[in-house]
């Protein structure tokens, strides 16, 4: 087999992609969207789990569709046909829905699953590229995906039918999202580790520094002790407290200005150098994405925000939100 591909004038990639587009357009031009509407209804109304099953490449598409639906809160899963025939059909119940993907509609393993599904009184929906097929005839509902031919030169390799299956599955998923009126917050709950999830779910409480991670010195401490605490945590800010109550903050910016002006006593009381009315966060349950804006909300940007709660006795320090920690959490 020749490995030379560069500069092969006989390989017109633009024409090949154009042909693939025309084959996909055939699907869009001839697909009955009302079938998809009924399918969406079945998914939304399913009281149990929507099981997807297919063999080979169709199986990979089924797995992807099941995962996509699960990510928006629909109980769905991929059911391996071979495993189903050897016991896994036991996971299925009457309230479940079985969706079988097969280009030909004659896949032996899927046809063999039908009696087991019937014994469970499951509803069966087949998705095929042939309207009149054995699988369509054995299903409660058949969805026909029009396919003119495969892009494969022999019309055998499923290089177009799988695209059509995926387009159908992903479009149905998007339709289910609209049918369920899924909110961004609900979507985030299923993606806690993703960027969207972090931005919508993380709160100040999740990221703020507390305990030994919190830079804190007593109001009676020296400036020297405050500088040491700055160096210990690297947070860029030290809260000055009397007991648990906030009396001020001292930042590395304050230190730089003192050094530049040469007007400090390293053994002097830190309360003489601390800012007495720092910008604070009053609600530790505030969404982190909202809190991030506070770093730049004042007349000048700050790198740390004490997290506090107001009590009769004074303003209690709960923790400290650091800009670098916040940006890292939201990245």
UniProtKB/TrEMBL annotation:
Keywords: CBS domain. GO terms for molecular function: carbohydrate derivative binding. Residues 39-182 form the SIS domain. SUPFAM superfamilies: SIS domain. Gene3D superfamilies: CBS-domain, Glucose-6-phosphate isomerase like protein, domain 1. GO terms for biological process: carbohydrate derivative metabolic process. Residues 274-331 form the CBS domain. This is SIS domain-containing protein. It comes from Ostreococcus sp. 'lucimarinus'. The lineage of its organism: Eukaryota, Viridiplantae, Chlorophyta, Mamiellophyceae, Mamiellales.
């Amino acid at each position: 087999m020749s490995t030379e591909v560069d500069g092969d004038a006989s390989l017109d990639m633009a024409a090949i992609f154009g042909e693939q587009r025309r084959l996909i357009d055939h699907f869009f031009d001839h697909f009955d969207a009302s079938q998809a509407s009924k399918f969406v209804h079945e998914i939304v109304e399913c009281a149990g789990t929507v099981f997807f099953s297919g063999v080979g490449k169709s199986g990979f598409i089924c797995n992807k569709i099941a995962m996509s639906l699960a990510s928006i809160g629909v109980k769905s899963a991929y059911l391996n046909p071979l495993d189903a025939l050897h016991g896994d059909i036991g996971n299925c119940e009457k309230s479940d829905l079985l969706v079988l993907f097969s280009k030909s509609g004659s896949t032996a393993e899927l046809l063999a699953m039908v009696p087991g599904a019937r014994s469970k009184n499951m509803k069966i929906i087949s998705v095929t590229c042939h309207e009149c097929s054995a699988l369509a005839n054995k299903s409660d509902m058949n969805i026909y995906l029009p396919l003119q031919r495969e892009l494969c030169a022999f019309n055998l390799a499923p290089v177009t039918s799988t695209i059509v299956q995926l387009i159908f599955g992903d479009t149905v998923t998007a339709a289910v999202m609209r049918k369920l009126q899924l909110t961004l917050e609900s979507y985030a709950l299923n993606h806690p580790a993703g960027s969207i999830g972090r931005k919508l779910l993380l709160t100040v409480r999740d990221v703020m520094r507390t305990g030994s991670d919190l830079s804190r010195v007593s109001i009676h401490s020296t400036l020297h002790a405050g500088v040491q605490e700055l160096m210990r945590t690297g947070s860029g800010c030290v809260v000055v407290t009397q007991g648990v109550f906030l009396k001020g903050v001292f930042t590395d910016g304050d230190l730089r200005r003192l050094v530049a002006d040469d007007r400090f006593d390293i053994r002097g009381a830190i309360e003489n150098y601390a800012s007495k009315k720092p910008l604070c966060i009053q609600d530790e349950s505030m969404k982190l994405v909202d809190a991030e804006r506070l770093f730049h909300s004042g007349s000048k940007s700050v790198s740390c925000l004490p997290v506090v709660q107001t009590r009769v006795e004074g303003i209690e320090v709960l923790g400290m939100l650091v800009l670098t920690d916040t940006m890292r959490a939201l990245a």
